[in-house]
Design goal:
Elements (H helix, E strand, L loop, with lengths): L1 E6 L2 E4 L4 E9 L6 E7 L6 E7 L5 E3 L7 E6 L4 E6 L8 E8 L6 E2 L3 E6 L1
Parallel strand pairs: 2-11
Antiparallel strand pairs: 1-3, 3-8, 4-5, 4-9, 5-6, 7-8, 9-10, 9-11
Length: 117
């Protein structure tokens, strides 16, 4: 099993910044992705960003490209999401997840991000 614990959410004014963290523990994999997703009230969960744990390649949704940055710390088994220029549309519960194969199988409990306008 894999345990994922997110932190760093909170309330921020529009234009502000937050950094989310997701610490992973438990089972390890040889090649995998870690990703961030979000779900706003009344909406489906959507992909935000991901990173290949081995080579560091990153991917972003169009809605956050240029504003959010995903990174990893291999020594801490932690993935980060730096969120800048936050907008009210970024308000959601943010989840981190692990994709050991073709789909995301392990999920954190989520952390709330609220952007006030």
């Amino acid at each position: 099993q894999v345990q994922l614990v997110e932190s760093g959410g909170g309330l921020v004014q529009a234009g502000g910044s937050l950094r989310l963290s997701c610490a992973a523990s438990g089972r390890t994999f040889t090649n995998y992705f870690m990703g961030w997703f979000r779900q706003a009230p009344g909406k489906e969960r959507e992909f935000v960003s991901s990173i290949n744990w081995n080579n560091g390649f990153t991917y972003y949704s169009d809605s956050v490209k240029g504003r959010f940055t995903i990174s990893r710390d291999k020594t801490r088994n932690t993935v980060y999401l730096q969120m800048n220029s936050l907008q009210s549309e970024d308000t959601a519960v943010y989840y981190c997840a692990v994709r050991p194969g073709v789909r995301y199988e392990y999920w954190g409990q989520g952390t709330q991000v609220t952007v006030s306008s």
